[in-house]
Amino acid sequence: MNRNIGRHDEKRLMEKWLSVRQAAAVAQYNFRLWHRNPRIWMTFFLAFIMCFLLSDKVMSFAVKYDCSMQFFEPFIWTFSDSNSILLASLLMFFLFADMPFVSGGTPFFLMRTSRRVWLIGQFVYIMAATLLYMLFVLVSTGLLCMKHSFLGNMWSETAARLGYSSAGARLAVTASRKTMEMTTPYACTAVIFVLMLLYTLLLVFVMMVFNLYKGQMAGMIAATSFSVYGFLLSPDIFKVIFHLEENETYKANVIVGWLSPLNQAAFERHNFGYDLLPTVAQSVILFLLLLMICLGFAHRSIREYSFVFTGTEGEI
Question: What is the phi/psi pair of residue 70, to 5°?
């Protein structure tokens, strides 16, 4: 009896290991298609141009006053702002325009594995591709300012000039004394990177869910609506809609800070111990919860999804 139980457990373990390998193969196959897809290379080219344009203000300031920067400071000052995060996430429309990634190899995988394993492979691919894209943005922003930067984990003279004077406000750069007094460049970069990554993943998975339910057009509309919602739900617009007085600005900041995923992705819009805004930990938990909900809907929808392959006469 014990031998039978042991063999059964071993068989289940082998089946799970095989499913993991099959899901990894699905993700790997999607990456193999990158080298002959000009849309992928265009996405990363546009991302580099975006990093250049967004970090140009900080770089020009450092050049003008001949002062140095910490390597990750251009990324910190650029992507602490919700509008910059939104702009970076919009390039996901190009990167994942062919979602849910039905290609010539899909029938091969569906015949050798289950729809569930195939979908898990797509999840792995989306997370890995998004992570790669975010790392590219992080490194590109630093390399563009490399001539005037150093790697030490300390705030630079440029950060001090921007944060402790009116220069930051004039340049619309989100360099604040609060950030420099409460954290270090490496820690701040890690938090901003994680928040950006989670927001972008949420945007992509929203698009994925609607793609599976209603098709690619529905996915694009859903992702666009999600982005527009985050953009419009800003404190300034909120004050106009509800006719709030200047002394009620704090209420608008708190409400928007909790209701808008885009604002929760912005480092500066968090509670650092003295207000009612969400903390970074709360935002991370909320993002993970929303991602789990999206994964659940996607898993449910794949059961009834009709695979249509160009050049074939039927569906799977």
Answer: -70, 145
Within a 10 A sphere around the Cβ of 17, how many other Cβ atoms? Answer: 10
Structure tokens at 88: 């970076």
Taking the C-alpha atoms of residue 51 and residue 264, their distance in angstroms, rounded to an integer, is 21
Query: Concatenated DSSP letters for the chain?
Result: -HHHHHHHHHHHHHHHHHHHHHHHHHHHHHHHGGGG-HHHHHHHHHHHHHHHHHHHHHHHHHHHHT--EETTHHHHHHHTSHHHHHHHHHTHHHHTTTTTT--TTHHHHHHHS-HHHHHHHHHHHHHHHHHHHHHHHHHHHHHHTGGGEE-SSS--HHHHHHHSSTHHHHTT----HHHHHH--HHHHHHHHHHHHHHHHHHHHHHHHHHHHHH-HHHHHHHHHHHHHHHHH--HHHHHHHHT--GGGHHHHHHHHHHH-HHHHTSGGGS-SSSSSSPPHHHHHHHHHHHHHHHHHHHHHHTTS---B-TT-SSB-
Q: Quick check: 8 pLDDT over 60?
A: no
Q: Is residue 312's pLDDT more than 50?
A: no
Separation of alpha carbons 286 and 226, rounded Å: 16
Residue 164 pLDDT level (bands cut at 50, 70, 90) = low
pLDDT at 65: 75
pTM for the structure as a whole:
0.87
* Position 304 pLDDT exceeds 90: no
